[in-house]
Specification:
Elements: E1 3-4, H1 6-19, H2 24-35, H3 38-44, E2 46-47, H4 62-68, E3 74-76, H5 81-94, E4 102-105, H6 118-122, H7 127-143, E5 148-149, H8 173-189, E6 193-199, H9 218-225, H10 227-234, E7 239-242, E8 246-247, E9 250-251, H11 256-266, E10 272-274, H12 282-286, H13 291-301, E11 306-307, H14 311-321, H15 327-344, H16 368-381, E12 383-387, E13 398-402, H17 428-436, E14 441-445, H18 474-485, E15 490-496, H19 515-526, E16 531-536, H20 544-549, E17 552-555, H21 563-571, E18 638-640, E19 644-645, E20 649-650, E21 656-664, E22 670-680, E23 691-700, E24 705-712, E25 719-720, E26 726-728, E27 731-738, E28 746-751
Parallel strand pairs: 2-11, 3-4, 4-5, 5-6, 6-7, 7-10, 13-14, 13-15, 15-16, 16-17, 20-28
Antiparallel strand pairs: 1-26, 8-9, 12-17, 18-21, 19-21, 21-24, 22-23, 22-27, 25-26, 27-28
Helix pairs in contact: 2-15, 3-14, 7-8, 7-16, 8-10, 13-14, 16-21, 17-21, 18-19
This protein binds beta-D-glucopyranose.
Length: 752
């Protein structure tokens, strides 16, 4: 028996929506649109380049005239209420119809108070914290003129070479969907409009090279890459951003199947879709037509707003005249944008997002409570990857803090921190010095540059900043570090990537720690003292050698403005680490892509083996990651009891409760992320070897034990076919509950 759930519900929803009486918003927009000229409608679809992403200032004064003429629907990358209020005033008081502008910005993981990069945030597995971070970011941005954020990015990503894995929540569709919901709720509760991006499949670029071709089966789209977007629609997200990549040979920006059939007709999305930066114009390079053709094709496919290209602005008029665009389609796109403005309250009060002024320097922005929360959340995002009785450190003796990431404030915020006060971020050495309160001696040496002189200097295309380089030679830096470290009892080595090495247009073909830093680590280890490796990174790195060299390894991603204090909190045990990985760490580059929810194949390799004849294997490495999805240590230890099921047969409207006892068997209070996975043993199509279906993060005092329960119903156990129908198939399932995706703690049940 096959149950097809989805299309029936969608049709019912469409039917009821079409029967409802006109709302106040509909009447308002009807009336406004009845006064608009075609040019004014086209203007609403236009999101021209406006501000400089670094300074936040207007790029050209021409924008004011265009706003006055009604040629602009929204603007982005302006910073500060003074400039935003001034331009809004022109729209409201000097344009013919006084339609307010939609002001956007990339507020990705904080505004002036910066939280960990999203990949780090997801490693907290704490969706309340994620929602809080979005709420605070929304509050700060919303007080400073911003009504619309180009966030969350909910692209599932399984290739760590792709620099933008730092902006997402990892490899798993279930977890990224929870993240997506939490982010959307947080922004909405703060009163700003989220823009869910990049729709879709952007995280699957071939070879992990940004903007590269994507080619994927529909089954994988629906089951792996789409769920976080669908979840955002269900949370009521009001805007989506089309991705740069192609899907079935047609760029998402002009992909009618994606933007209309899936997003609107299957999922019932009611908001508007904006292109990514010059997404329309880039379709000329993709090779699907000239500028006019691609612009009209995008509009007809269901794209409503044009970021930067000016293609819709330039060609809709002639498209209408030639009959290639219908007036209804223009009206529809214009209406969707006006509705977003209405829902934000901009028609009632166009200056509602401009509370901050010189006289009223909004007390929330970069406030102590916000920073305290950012510190707490950062500490929850760190993942303890190894600890052989070295951590937590004592606040006594002599501690040498060494490495190119030890004393740099600028590198703490991570990618896409456009509103951050980089100079006020807290560096690691500052955090450690303050934490020991004079009880320990803290020494510092830089030890090396981030990269050696021979290596290519990586320049951030996003922010135009170069990676800072010390004038001294690598040899001189190393000598100084060794002499400093030799005087210490313990060495904290702060190594990894510069923040510019991940993010947009920052793919790497090799994801090692740069050589010059590895050399420093090797020399430090030779001193024979305990070395704690504090790893800064925007993506999983290949660190097999380094992990073997040191007794303790803490992954801190880029923790945001309060990084230094948060890291010190964990190093000294004031906070017990509780983060778990949301992306697998490969042993080497050749294993990529590597993810826990893989298929079994017809010739699975036995675990731990790296060579068996005629198996799906490599001749030189096994198939397991260095650190798996869901993995992370604590200063305490947890013991899991066997999985107990309320029933071994699940059917119809029934539910199944799965429980384990969990005991904190160590000496510290600590939080554990309990994870539930299922394996659908037989399907009409092949199914992954494990799929995350639930998780809970709990605090247990030392010695305490508790029962952890999850409830599943048949609808949690289905999957999508290639047409997007959700199928629930009877059969046998394994259900696992444990501390990571590698758990074998399982029971079986049958879905009838
Ligand atoms: C990025 C988007 C971003 C947009 C606006 C693009 O290059 O892909 O993620 O929101 O720029 O800054």
């Amino acid at each position: 028996m096959k149950q097809i759930v989805y299309p029936v519900l969608a049709l019912a929803a469409l039917f009821f929506a079409s029967c409802s009486p006109k709302s106040e918003m509909d009447r308002f927009v009807d009336q406004l649109m009845s006064k608009m000229t075609v040019e004014e409608k086209i203007g609403q679809l236009n999101l021209p380049v406006t501000g400089d992403i670094v300074t936040g200032e207007l790029k050209s004064s021409d924008v004011s005239n265009r706003v006055r003429e009604g040629e602009v629907g929204g603007l982005f990358n302006l910073k500060g209420t003074e400039s935003i209020r001034a331009i809004q005033k022109i729209a409201v008081e000097e344009s013919r119809l006084g339609i307010p502008l939609l002001i956007g910005m990339d507020v990705i993981h904080g505004y002036e108070t910066v939280f960990p990069i999203p990949l780090g945030l997801s490693c907290s597995w704490d969706m309340e914290a994620v929602e809080k971070m979005a709420f605070i970011s929304g509050q700060e941005a919303g007080a400073d003129g911003i009504a619309w954020t180009f966030s969350p990015m909910v692209d599932v990503a399984r290739d760590p070479r792709w620099g933008r894995v730092s902006e997402g929540a990892g490899e798993d569709p279930f977890l990224v969907s929870q993240f997506s919901r939490a982010m959307v709720r947080g922004y909405q509760n703060a009163g700003i409009l989220p823009c869910v991006k990049h729709f879709a499949l952007y995280g699957a670029a071939e070879g992990g090279r940004d903007y590269n071709t994507v080619d994927m089966s529909r089954g994988r789209m629906y089951n792996v890459y789409f769920p976080p977007f669908k979840a955002a629609v269900e949370e009521g997200a009001g805007s989506f951003m089309a991705s740069f990549n192609e899907i079935d040979g047609v760029p998402a920006t002009a992909n009618r199947w994606l933007l209309t059939d899936v997003l609107r007709n299957q999922w019932g999305f009611k908001g508007f879709v904006v292109s990514d930066y010059t997404g329309i114009l880039e379709m000329v390079d993709h090779g699907i037509g000239n500028f006019e053709q691609v612009s009209l094709r995008a509009l007809n496919a269901g794209l409503d707003m044009d970021m930067v290209s000016e293609g819709l602005f330039t060609y809709i008029r002639t498209g209408l005249e030639k009959g290639e665009i219908s007036p209804e389609r223009l009206d529809q796109a214009c209406r969707r944008i006006l509705e977003a403005k209405y829902k934000l309250g901009l028609f009632q009060d166009p200056y509602k997002f401009c509370r901050r002024s010189k006289e009223n320097p909004d007390s929330l922005i970069f406030s102590d409570p916000h920073r305290a929360l950012a510190r707490k959340i950062a500490a929850e995002s760190f993942v303890l990857l190894k600890n052989e009785s070295v951590l937590p450190l004592k606040k006594s003796g002599t501690i040498a803090v060494v490495g190119p990431l030890a004393s740099t404030r600028e590198n703490m915020a991570g990618t896409w921190s456009v509103a951050a006060r980089l100079g006020e971020c807290r560096s690691l050495v500052e955090g450690i010095r303050d934490a020991v309160e004079g009880k320990a001696k803290v020494l510092y040496a830089k030890g090396s540059n981030l990269m050696s002189d021979e290596q290519l200097e990586i320049r951030s295309t996003t922010f135009g900043r170069t990676i800072p380089r010390d004038g001294r030679s690598d040899e001189a830096l190393l000598r100084e570090a060794l002499s400093t470290a030799s005087r210490a009892d313990v060495i904290v080595a702060a190594l990894g990537e510069a923040s510019e090495m991940s993010g947009e247009s920052s793919s790497r073909s090799c994801i090692d720690i740069p050589d010059v830093q590895v050399r420093l680590l090797e020399e430090l280890v030779k001193l024979g003292k305990p070395v704690v490796l504090v790893l800064f990174n925007g993506r999983p790195l290949t660190i097999q050698r380094e992990a073997a060299m040191v007794p303790a390894l803490l992954d801190v991603w880029f923790g945001g403005s309060e990084s230094g204090d948060a890291i010190a909190d964990v190093l000294f045990g004031d906070v017990n680490p509780s983060g778990k990985l949301t992306m697998s760490f490969p042993k080497n580059m050749g294993q990529i892509p590597i993810y826990y929810a893989h298929k079994n194949t017809g010739r699975p390799l036995e675990k731990g083996k790296w060579f068996q004849k005629f198996r799906s294997n490599y001749l030189d490495v096994d198939n397991e990651p260095l650190f798996p999805f869901g993995y992370g240590l604590s200063y305490t230890s947890f013991e899991y009891g066997p999985v107990q099921l309320s029933t071994e047969k699940l059917s119809g409207s029934g539910t199944l409760t799965a429980s384990v006892t969990l005991k904190n068997t160590g000496e510290y209070d600590g939080k554990e992320v309990v994870q539930l996975y299922v394996r659908d043993l037989v399907g009409s199509v092949t199914r992954p070897v494990k799929e995350l279906k639930g998780f809970q993060k709990l605090l247990l005092k030392a010695g305490e034990s508790t029962t952890v329960s999850f409830t599943l119903s048949p609808s949690d156990l289905g999957f999508y076919d290639a047409e997007g129908n959700y199928l629930i198939e009877p059969g046998d399932f394994q259900l696992f509950i444990g501390p990571s995706s590698e758990t074998q703690n399982a029971a079986t049940f049958t879905l009838e």
